[in-house]
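Researcher: Go.
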Amino acid sequence: MPSFLLDHIALSVKNVDESVAFYQKVFQLKEIENTASNSKTRWLSLGEGKQLHLIPRPNLEVKTNKAVHFALATSDLKTFIQHLKELKIEYSDWKNTANKDYIRKDGIQQFYFQDPNGYWIEVNNAI
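Model: Structure:
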């Protein structure tokens, strides 16, 4: 059986400019060239060759729950939580307790928040 690595995450978004600005503001992601097409889809680097593709869909209606999410890890959750507070972005634990993180059974600290389109993002310290 071949092995696999994560290549990219693709999200449909109502307003691609607003979404790019959000991900750049929150995570300081660098925009990279969309080498696949001349479309208005915009790509951001997640580091280590991984990418976030934001695909414009103006009539989008996202219906999802917290169990459908992607997770990013950092070694400095305290600084990132302060950054979210400065940006006035609310976060919660798995049970939706506002402005609270959670420590999993394996010792990993995590919390969740949503992007402008309603997608859930987990941030943890699994590094």
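Model: The CA atoms of residues 27 and 80 lie 9 Å apart.
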